[in-house]
Amino acid sequence: MLNPVSGPSSPMSSSRRGLQDKIQCDSCQLEWNMRFKIILAICEALNFLHTELNKPISHLPLTPENILLDKNLVPKLSDIGLSDLFEGLSPEGTDYDPEITRYKAPEYINRYTISFQSNIYSLGLLIMDIATGEKNRSHARQTMDNSHFANVRQMWTDEYIASKYTSLGVTCIGQLKVCLQIALWCVEDKRKDRPSIREIVNTLNNPYIGRALNKPGVSPILLLSVQPQRLCFPLPPTRLISRLLCLTNNKDECIAFRLLTDNPGRYHTKLPLCGIVLPKCTYTINVVVHEQTKQLPSNSDKFLTLMCTTTHEKELKNLDADSAAVLFENPDHEVQGMMLPVVCDPPEETISDQIIASKNRQVVLSVDVHPISQVLSMDVHPKEPWILTTNQRGTLCIWNYQNKQTVKSFEVSPGEPVYSAKFIEAKHWLVTGDGDGYIHVYSYDTMEEVKNFRAHENNIMSLVLHRSFPLVLSASDDHLIKLWNWAKHWECTRTFRGHYNRVTQVMFRPGYTYCFASASLDGRVKIWDINSENCIHTLNAHPDGLLCLHYLKDKQLYYARYFLVVGSSDGVAKVWDWNDDEPNYVGTLEGHTNRLTAFCWDTKHEVLVTGSLDGTMQIWKPTSTRYRLENIIRLNLGAVTALAYTQESTRVVVGCQQGIAMVEIDYV
């Protein structure tokens, strides 16, 4: 007969077992809460020594021996002020326990340097010991680096923590993960890579700490991988200065983010900023600060708050970036967050921060804001380091992208938009069209007008030069395309009819001498031969109208194939294989939330760059079956209106409402 107390079917047994589990769970929670309070109290005590005294104090290497606990387990720091006795002296011969060596920073061991960042290194090891309950007892420094740190990095994964502490709640698990991340950050070999004590305390006191989704595989702090962990701007910024913030989503679901600040007036970037990071994609934010009239202190206590939450595909329908803020007001969404320190450092210490690794690719971004805003078109000179821009106010500008200086600037059509302009290098000319349908030709040596003539009835929307012949195509609001021979005094040799709405762009097909394509607001793409007025092919590409097109070169084993990509008013791009007699549909690129305005093909890395009125440029990598969105870059310079590629510097030039950005894409 089974014992009624211990029998498996006894309600009392089940009740007692549940009570025992609860006692064990409560005990685990209490133990971790005690550890976390000790970690936080040590950090706050060190913060007091580093930042709140008239004469800040740098502690000798923090060790368990100089941290005392009172009867309530509140830690007290001892041996304060001893660093002054050893400043500049070797502490060799002092009667220390050899095990204390493991808490010493590399610069303390090698050069006997005592500094705030040396304290941070010791603090990291203490946090590691307290959080894990493990202590490496090896006296050999090399062994300690290779085993203890590696053990924490490799062994203490999300899955290991979840299995080891099954009775800990979500908040405690989140706190543990944050403490481990801080500890590993503190033990960086280079002092400048370690956090300040203020950053540590603010992170631990972050109200969003531990608010992670209760499921395996969640990032230690955020659902997103964030690089860098702090933004460093050169001091003093005498102009608009930008730094990248990369948010990488390695998951299979969409993640919405929100970037906040308590000091929006400091930033050229409009904050708060919301957006959505698609699965297996990186969202790069160009954080721009205003020009400063005075130097800011290098330890300025400034932070950006980053919040993120998961979302579902059905919630993304008709949802633009700004509407993502609604997700954070929904109580059903779990929200995570972290504080990103914004610090000011000398320029030489911030150069490396411009390179942000993302998967197997780096994005190097530098922004030089040109005084001409509302850029509508750009062209790159084939030999000189020049970019030709047009804008909404009818101004043409030649800008040197090497020395960041304006070469020449003048008005073509005051107060009226100029949509296109091109260099004719063979004659040292530039050609442009105005809103009245006139084509103007100027010498860019003297800036004198060589010729002007009426070409169309309305706005000239697009101009393109033939690579080999002295020919220029013009496209207009009047639905017409015309071919001009500039070697024959700009004689019109052909007029192409067939579109029944504005012709938005024309482009000669690479590798084919006589072929070109046109896109129109009538939603059609047409393929033409310059020797005939009749259209060769017509494709009904999109009912909402087409705004831009571009040819892409896909290198095959023995030959090159060209694809045609067209962009529409709803932000969708479609790719067509037009190498055979009939076009073959390849795929659709969906990522932008507003009109597509421009394409660019990076010939070095074979990636497609798209620009949109939503203020982002996106990088697409062709695969064997489709185009994969790799990176969304928000430049925060307004709508992206034009793209160009510089062969010499292998950089993409981005024209925006508020200036020009130079973007370099490179592999790691």
From TrEMBL:
Example GO CC term: the record gives:
cytoplasmic vesicle membrane
Q: Which SMART domains match?
A: WD40 (SM00320)
Question: Which InterPro entries does the record associate with it?
Answer: Coatomer_complex_subunit (IPR050844), Ig-like_fold (IPR013783), Kinase-like_dom_sf (IPR011009), MSP_dom (IPR000535), PapD-like_sf (IPR008962), Prot_kinase_dom (IPR000719), WD40/YVTN_repeat-like_dom_sf (IPR015943), WD40_PAC1 (IPR020472)
Q: Which UniProt keywords apply?
A: Cytoplasmic vesicle, Repeat, WD repeat
Location in the cell? Cytoplasmic vesicle membrane
User: Where do the Protein kinase domain residues begin and end?
Assistant: 1-209
What SUPFAM superfamilies has UniProt attached to this entry?
PapD-like, Protein kinase-like (PK-like), WD40 repeat-like
Q: Which domain of life is it from?
A: Eukaryota
Q: Where is the MSP domain?
A: 223-345
Spell out the molecular function terms from Gene Ontology.
Answer: ATP binding; protein kinase activity
Q: Which Gene3D superfamilies match?
A: Immunoglobulins, Transferase(Phosphotransferase) domain 1, YVTN repeat-like/Quinoprotein amine dehydrogenase
Main subcellular localisation: membrane
Q: Cite the repeat ranges for WD.
A: 453-485, 496-538, 589-621
Does the keyword Repeat feature in the UniProt annotation? yes
Record bears the keyword Lipid metabolism: no
Q: What is this protein called?
A: Protein kinase domain-containing protein
